[in-house]
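Hi there,

I know you've been waiting on this one. I reran it after we fixed the sequence typo, so this is the corrected version. Both the input and the resulting structure follow.
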Amino acid sequence: MAVRTPGAAPVARSGRARPVAEAEAVLVRHYRRLVRLAYLALPADRDRHSRVLAAHGAVQRALPFRWARRTEPEPAGADPVYAALRLRGLRAALRPRPGARLSAPRVWGLRLFTPHGVEQDAALDHALAALGTPARAAFALRTVEGLADGQAVEVLRQAGVERPEEAVAVAAGIPAALEAEPPAFDPCAVRVQPTDLLRRRRTLTAVLAVGALGLTTTAAVLGGGSGPAGSAGQDDGRPAGAMTDPARLARAAPDAWQHTARVDFSAWPARGDRREDGALLGRALAAWTRPGRQTHAEPGTDTAPPAASPQLLYAGTVDGTGVAVLYDGRRIARFTDGPGGGLDLARADGADPTTAGAVVLHRRGTARRYLLAPWVDAAETRRIDQPDTPVRPLDHPDGVTAAAPGGGLADCQGATVLQLHSSPVIAEKHAFLLADLGGLLPAHLTYAPPPDRAQPGATQPGATQPDRIPSDREPREATAQDALQAWARAGCAVPDGTPGVKQLNLWAFAVQPLPRNAGSAAWFCSRADRWTGEGSAATAVLLPSARGPQRTGGGPGRSCSRFEQDTVAWTWWRSPQGAEYLLAAGSRRVTRLIVRGPDWSVERPAPDRTLAVERPARAAVQVEALLDNGSRINPPH
């Protein structure tokens, strides 16, 4: 179907194009490029039909009624009119305004989709779905527009993005480009299919019947009579059509996970003793097709119906309650039957063998049951605060576990986590930890150990450091004894322990000998990454005889991630003798630490990346670290 574009630009009687007409001519000439830019920048939580329409609407609304020349700087050689239209369209895509849908193009009875691309296009689409909106916009500016990183940062800043440098850095990690303009990313080359014809017919019949009833009633009132009441044909509320037909649910083969490189929820077979129960599955599909008050979506999760018939992962009876679990390629939906039930939705795009390792099926009190991935050979539970306590085997016939205790990580009371072992088909001797945070999908726990001074990558005065943390410092599974000990001591300092967290990493970035032989302090940075692409970090220190970790700073952003691998933190500490010390510590590339007080300052080389300064009393201070490349960093806050 060809998408209709604005007509040719009118010309003023003087023979010179008016400013608005000139802008219209530029918009028409570059319409496809601008719509493609908006389509890529739009949030991934919209279905493709909505994104196609929203992209066209954003670009068409970019043309103003009056044209005011902007004074914002443009990239060298850029057409100022085109750059201004691009900025207006980008702003509309980044922050859709209330009521914008009313002015978007309307399509009745049809659904629009960009065509399916090749395997590489699907991989790129999968990677983009995991990015936040600013990063998607940055990717579009770098690929569609061909802007350099600095230029993309400037355009995003003008568009209102708070941290454009971060968005560009994240986008730079997506390796694919779009020079070939594949149709999978072109909202001007779309395919169409009809909506639910039966439901539309019944809806139209109901509307006409209600309209006829209104006319009959009005005529009776005007005529002074009380003729017989007409009965309008009404929709009985039962869902119909392909989207709510249980027979059309997709089902993966039982051994699909053994023959695919995409080991995520799409490789899960349908399990459960009620997977042929059409009534239960019909109610689950109806709940997803018609979201209502009993629909609960985790933050950042779209509640729109699936664009096509979803995949069945489970249907059965759990603790006396009917439960169905569905997957549409980017969301997990869990339907719980009966009073008090409803539909729970969570994002699941970008999953891997660990983050697709389990779904929470049911909770009762402090116990919960999980549905495990088909590649899980063995399951156990362990107390996160008792690393030396042996694990307890967890039965999981047909993938459904026995009731297991839980508990939140952030309350420092000791949560029980899952320890799962993958089949050798997936990875040899691979075990990983998952923690229930109250959502549908447990969070994956990882660990990065402290620097080893004996390793070549450890910081040495004057040594040249690589740009990235060495491979032995990368986050690893938190199942080794050192990782378990670290999580037991500092795990409750996580910055985010709420539903929607995809991964929690604990990074031990420094160990500091304390003055007067008082032991040592261990410095950690814990990071939470959400399914939406957002994240936060918190620094903490563990001091001798302390009951738990002491938070020292943190906040949203990309601190302590692979995009920002340098950190510094500080705290006050009182020695057993009563002396007050300011303690500071930095990560492996820190070479110098600077502390400034109200009327004093200390700046010292830090060959071991730590500093202890004795002060008579605590006061407001500023701490800064110098890196081996001359850059300066401050503690996250």
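Quick highlight: The CA atoms of residues 288 and 305 lie 6 Å apart.

Best,
R. S.
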